[in-house]
Amino acid sequence: MAGQTDQALATLRQGILTGTFPPGARYTETELATLLGMSRTPVREAMQAVAAAGLASVTPRRGMTVSALSAEDMAEIYEVLTALESAAAARLAALDPRDLAPLEAALAAMEHALSMGDRDAWAEADAAFHRSLMEQAGNTRMAEAAARYTDQVHRARMLTLHLRPEPVHSVRDHAELLTAIRSNDPERAHAVHSAHRQRASEMLQDVIRRHHLPRL
Question: Is residue 57 within 8 Å of 51, Cβ to Cβ?
Answer without folding.
Answer: yes
